[in-house]
Protein 1
Amino acid sequence: MKKWNKMQGAPDGEKAWKVSLAALLRERLLKRTQPRQEACSGPLIKLENLVKIYDTGAIKVLGLKKINLTIERGEFVAIMGHSGSGKSTLMNILGCLDRPTLGHYYLDGIDTADMTPDELSDIRNRKIGFVFQSFNLISRTSALKNVELPMTYARLPKSKRTERAKELLERVGLGGRKEHMPMSCPEDSARGLP
Ligand SMILES: Nc1ncnc2c1ncn2[C@@H]1O[C@H](COP(=O)(O)OP(=O)(O)OP(=O)(O)O)[C@@H](O)[C@H]1O
Ligand SMILES: [Mg+2]
């Protein structure tokens, strides 16, 4: 496990620090007031000098050290590495579940680094599909309602989301189990539910 005890890039003097912080805040505020542009050309994913540092209080742990990666549209990529090499850390950032400490992550041409939690959750809802190792299903509700849930967050009308959820369940061979609780669905199919 790599550890990093010293943060880099401390600015010279308190004044310079305050000036650069004010400039950064102003830049971010300006960006927030402008609608985000949806890019549709260029790479789907682009990472530039991506760094993740976990601050555990006592020590800082380096999770990712300056990752540069480009993934084009339609490309299939597997991330491989030994235990502790940072796969989960990277996947959490790619999935917009976590943010990098330094560097940039452009998803569809848009930098996610300064997005608010609400904007990140919108991206997760609209652009990213997760297949979790553990199913993360709501056990007290039916397979149909579990599939409908992300569409509820996306504010799709009830009739549309039910129709779409039924279609998706049919596609993974669970058409006959719409009203079943997740525990009674076959493992491989349940993994595909959310
Ligand atoms: N929440 C955390 N707090 C502190 N350090 C963490 C945290 N999560 C991960 N790390 C550290 O970050 C580094 C990368 O860990 P990560 O879990 O991303 O590796 P991994 O490749 O997914 O490993 P595995 O194959 O065992 O799942 C490791 O040194 C790990 O100890
Ligand atoms: Mg892992």
Note: The CA atoms of residues 106 and 185 lie 37 Å apart.
Protein 2
Amino acid sequence: MLRVALALQVRPCKQDDLPAVHRLSVENTSFDATPTLADTEGLYHRNPEYFYVASDESGEVVGFITGYERRGIPEEVLRTWKAARVGYVELMAVDLGNRRKGIGTRLLNTLLEHFRSERIDLVLLDVPVEQMAAVKLYEKIGFNVRAFHMRKYLTNGAGAGSGI
Ligand SMILES: CC(C)(COP(=O)(O)OP(=O)(O)OC[C@H]1O[C@@H](n2cnc3c(N)ncnc32)[C@H](O)[C@@H]1OP(=O)(O)O)[C@@H](O)C(=O)NCCC(=O)NCCS
């Protein structure tokens, strides 16, 4: 485990990394509609400075994280939140074969450090309920739950009673 941690590099994402990031994103994260490579490229080009990848000793991308600064929040809301600037963690994933090696933690801490260096003092994120590994990671880093995002089907359609 230590050997892997030493060989691992967390670095800013480059355009060339996007196909690998896209694969990780499609294979590991939950979406209502499967993103295309163009969607992933759009995500990168909107906020390239807050986009990081983890690569192993062979240079293979084994994880990524992306976020952005939430702008345009009214002053009164910021006062209520006791925050000056707000960041948002948009998406992260670590390749299945490389989990529980601290890679997710390193990616998240890198993004949070970058937010902090930009004087962002509050960070928000949303996570699908089935992604319990992510919830555990976020809690370990110090995030706490401030809302539940709930839904109920009013028909007997496919989703009714599924609990998701
Ligand atoms: C969430 C995710 C990125 C974590 O990556 P990771 O590299 O395995 O995370 P880490 O190794 O840094 O784990 C840090 C801590 O998080 C918690 N954790 C991570 N995975 C866990 C799991 N499957 N079960 C319970 N706790 C878990 C543990 O406390 C862990 O510390 P420990 O290993 O010392 O016990 C990875 O599981 C993933 O890609 N999940 C699918 C995509 C996803 O849910 N993305 C987030 C929402 S968009």
Note: Residues 28-29, 91-94, 99-105, 127, 131, 133-134, 136-137, 140 surround coenzyme A (CB under 6 Å).
